[in-house]
Design goal:
The complex is a heterodimer of chains A (about 425) and B (about 450). Chain A is an alpha+beta fold and about 425 residues long. The relative contact order of chain A is 0.18. In chain B, the strands form four sheets. A ten-stranded mixed beta sheet of chain B has the order 7-4-8-9-1-10-16-15-11-12, with helices on both faces. In chain B, strands 2-3 form a two-stranded antiparallel sheet. Chain B is globular. Classes of the chains: A alpha+beta (about 425), B alpha/beta (about 450). At the A-B interface, helix 3, strand 7, helix 4, helix 5 and strand 8 of A face strand 4, helix 3, strand 6, helix 4 and helix 5 of B.
């Protein structure tokens, strides 16, 4: 980073592998797959009927008493971010306003929150009830909607689905009064939110930041959209555990999921002063943009992925020789995986053969804007534990993929891990974490 | 090293004009962009009017419309506004071999952009056709059958809030930092502020920053109507946006895009581009109060203003003009007035502050940058835009809101404020430049 040094001191997650960052890591190391038949709604008529879903939870268990009423205003994306944030603060040893009865240690004005959030789908059942009040001869009648139908929606309906409500609820719960931002750059949202949070600390506008993302892609609209866009795997409904196959020759599309990951970033000296455990240091971040006019996919040479990685390396003052692990986006969409592989290879040059590449979406699925946050947490644990798991569902490389995908996991010193990603629309991002 | 940050290009597509000149002429003439809603049939809605962008055609701005032809309304507005801003800042667009001296890997895009417009017919008809009154829920198999036919991939992709930025990357060849943010009504102020920080730190040489948004669609208007945030003055739409007046009853929903080009003075000088103004300071805070309301003592708003002043390295008395968030809602205008008084004390009564939303409405995600552009114009033209429709002042709100008529004034430093639903507060301070070479 350019200015003050920034470290990670805590993490929280909820994912198809469980509630908690620990269960996420354990699941990844076991090679467990969190993808299964869709339970959240009746998906029998959908071409894709599988997804990665989190375990059941009761949101009221994760908020202080003072915020219980406000849980009615939370869509699932918000709930996931709230759950992961609670764990993140606790793991970093911060006491916040949410810890009722205790004296908060968090310095509100000097704390920021920055999350990547998706384009949140409204609850169709809820809106359908109002549509049901607006029918004339069985057809939607906008005159009736304007007069009567809309009146049946709860007054605060809109506030449930604004992407900035993820940080907003979290800021209220934990009393965060510094900058609050919501990055809506599609599937690289949490990488870019993490990057910006690190920049805020680095330049001195905050000393602590909550960074990550939350997204649920498991609802009728969010499942249908990637089906229409040709990004979802519609051929593996009977075999969910093998459905998402990053960089594999037999990849048939991505499998969508839900989750949230939140990391606590702090200025290094502050973390040392308060005796916090430093999990990793933010070495460098980069981003770029694909110029493909087919906005659904990356340009085939993956140039934007390469540029993002090169910028991150430059900011980190590192070369490819310093990178010990890559956690890529690897979504299981053939043309995008091939483009990403080419971009990574171009950026890492001859080091490509050496560096283990560990895609994790085969296990957690593609949870949209939250995806990067889970990958960052995986990188954090990999650095601390000196190992990574296996690339589940990877058997034979897809055409164009010359990466060293870890078939059997990896054990050894990991001083620096590179995470990278891309989104429909073409945004790309890379983040390098290193041992402090 | 820290770079200074300057504005070298501006572009706007808004309800009172499709260029900065038109917009400014409109502001000076007291024009209103508000009228009956035509984008959908709102004839039975509680609010039947809005501030729409009329007669907009992207082909007036770009040579090749093909990469944008499926773009949503926000994307199309963004492309038009960005094309204007790039022209002014002499940034080559629509070319694979730009000759403007800008390293494309150090040129980025940062937009406060909203979601694209929903395909209403498909959205509502699929729900209507699959509705089961007895079970009070749609038959999902039936829903997906109809929705699959009526929704199309490009239309769904274009609803993603990251898409306007994608169109600008393709338009300009920008390969640097690309971010979109959506912090409700504060989004484009935040985008410009964070983009300025990227120039300051040297992470980018040039940033295309601003916002684009349209929520004038049935779900958008429904959402705001249910929040009772919109004016219902259906008998007089053009006087409905009346910030700081006693009978204000909500904001007027607008739409549009506003873009500025940010770079360092060295970059502008090297490229021989005229500097329009300098971005001096940025302040950002969070209310951490309630989902629905601003902090009742204006804590977050005050903090963001104070942070911006501190960041600018100036004293309060140097601020000559405040472009308010001034939405025309009961709450915002009161709390914002309280905030200005808390920050400026007695000085508050001497600093003119106005709200161009009285004329072009509330452009939601795009509004902050649109208002920043009016601040730059106020500095360049030494004239303050008015707060129109302020004939019946709220006795509690007693600042100088520049009522009803633009005013000549000495304006060297201006502050632009944006406060978003959910408590994101963002404030920018800009100043007249002394950095252009003497001619």
């Amino acid at each position: 980073m350019v200015g003050r040094r920034v470290v990670v001191t805590g993490a929280g997650a909820i994912s198809p592998l469980g509630v908690g960052a620990g269960p996420l890591w354990d699941g990844l190391m076991e090679g467990r797959c969190g993808i299964g038949p869709i339970r959240n709604f009746d998906a029998r008529g959908f071409a894709c009927r599988i997804a990665g879903q989190t375990p059941q939870y009761n949101i009221r268990d994760y908020v202080p008493k003072s915020h219980r009423k406000a849980t009615k205003l939370m869509c699932r994306d918000i709930e996931l971010a709230v759950i992961a944030s609670k764990e993140a603060f606790a793991s970093a040893g911060w006491i916040t306003k949410a810890d009722e009865g205790q004296k908060a240690t968090l310095v509100s004005e000097r704390t920021a929150v920055n999350f990547g959030a998706g384009f949140i789908s409204c609850d169709l059942t809820e809106i359908a009830q109002s549509v049901g009040h607006s029918l004339t001869d069985g057809r939607f009648d906008i005159h009736k909607w304007g007069k009567e139908g809309m009146e049946t929606l709860t007054p605060l309906w809109l506030l449930k689905y604004l992407p900035n409500m993820l940080p907003c609820h979290v800021a209220i719960i934990h009393d965060i009064q510094g900058p609050s931002n919501t990055i809506t750059s599609g599937e690289v949202g949490s990488y870019l939110a993490f990057t910006e949070a690190a920049e805020m600390i680095s330049r001195g506008d905050a000393d602590t930041a909550l960074a990550g993302g939350g997204d649920s892609r498991v609802n009728p609209l969010a499942i249908l959209r990637p089906i229409l866009m040709g990004r979802a795997n519609c051929q593996s409904n009977d075999n969910p555990a093998n459905a998402c196959r990053p960089f594999d020759k037999n990849a048939r599309g991505s499998v969508f999921s839900e989750g949230a990951g939140v990391l606590i970033l702090e200025e290094l000296e502050q973390a040392r002063r308060r005796g916090a455990k430093t999990l990793a240091e933010v070495a460098g971040c980069g981003s770029s943009h694909s110029l493909n006019r087919d906005y659904f996919h990356l340009e085939p040479d993956g140039l934007a992925v390469r540029y993002a990685i090169e910028s991150a390396l430059e900011e980190a003052g590192m070369s490819a020789a310093d990178v010990d692990l890559v956690i890529p986006c690897g979504s299981g969409i053939l043309p995008d995986d091939a483009a990403e592989a080419r971009g990574i290879e171009a950026a890492l040059g001859k080091e490509t053969r050496r560096i283990p590449v560990w895609p994790i979406k085969g296990m957690v699925g593609h949870c949209g804007a939250a995806g990067g946050s889970l990958e960052l947490i995986a990188a954090l644990y990999a650095i601390r534990n000196g190992r990574c798991g296996r690339a589940v569902n990877f058997q034979e490389p897809a055409q164009g993929c010359g990466l060293n995908i870890v078939k059997d996991g990896f054990e050894g010193k990991i001083d620096a891990a590179l995470c990278c990603g891309y989104s429909f629309g073409g945004q790309t991002a890379a983040v390098i974490l290193k041992r402090e | 090293m820290k770079h200074r940050v300057v504005i070298t290009g501006m572009g706007i597509v808004c309800p009172i004009g499709h260029s900065v000149e038109q917009m400014w002429e409109g502001l000076m003439a007291g024009a209103s962009g508000v009228g009956p809603t035509t984008l959908f049939d709102a004839s039975t809605f509680p609010t039947m009017f809005g501030a729409e962008v009329k007669d907009y055609n992207i082909s007036g701005f770009v040579k090749n419309i093909e990469p944008h032809i499926q773009g949503g309304r926000g994307s199309l507005f963004a492309v038009g506004a960005a094309a204007q801003a790039c022209r002014q800042a002499r940034i080559d667009i629509e070319t694979d071999s730009p000759a403007d001296g800008i390293d494309r890997r150090k040129m980025g895009v940062y937009l406060g952009a909203g979601e694209g417009s929903v395909n209403n017919d498909a959205f509502f008809s699929a729900l209507a056709d699959s509705w089961q009154a007895d079970k009070q829920c749609p038959d999902w198999s039936k829903w997906v059958e109809t929705a699959s036919v009526r929704m199309d991939a490009a239309g769904e992709l274009e609803q993603e809030p990251s898409m306007p930025a994608a169109h600008l990357a393709v338009l300009t060849g920008a390969r640097g930092v690309s971010r979109s943010c959506l912090t409700a009504c504060a989004a484009s102020t935040q985008a410009v502020g964070e983009a300025a920080m990227l120039i300051r730190s040297g992470k980018a040489d040039v940033m295309i920053a601003g916002g684009a948004h349209s929520m004038i669609h049935p779900l958008g208007v429904t959402g705001f109507s249910r929040l009772t945030a919109l004016s219902k003055r259906n008998d007089s739409p053009q006087t409905a946006s009346r910030p700081f007046s006693a009978p204000r009853d909500g904001f007027v929903l607008g739409e549009g895009a506003a873009i500025v080009i940010l770079e360092s003075p060295e970059s502008a000088k090297r490229r021989g581009v005229k500097i329009l103004a300098e971005v001096l300071g940025f302040g950002s805070s969070s209310d951490a109060f309630r989902i629905t309301d601003m902090h009742d003592q204006a804590r977050g708003a005050v903090q963001s203003m104070e942070l911006a002043i501190k960041d600018a390295g100036i004293t309060r008395d140097q601020i000559d003009y405040i472009s308010t968030h001034g939405t025309s809602t009961a709450e915002n205008d009161s709390i914002e007035t309280m905030a200005i008084k808390k920050v400026f004390g007695k000085l508050a009564y001497k600093i003119p502050c106005s709200s161009p939303k009285s004329q072009f409405g509330h452009l939601i995600g795009a509004t902050g940058c649109a208002e920043l552009i009016t601040c730059v114009m106020a500095i360049l033209e030494q004239t303050l835009p008015a707060t129109m429709n302020l004939n019946d002042p709220d006795p509690e709100l007693d600042l100088d809101y520049v009522p009803n008529k633009p005013r000549k004034a000495r304006v060297r430093t201006a502050m632009s404020e944006s406060f978003g639903f959910g408590g994101q507060n963002n404030v920018l301070i800009i100043r007249a430049t002394e950095l252009n070479p003497k001619s």
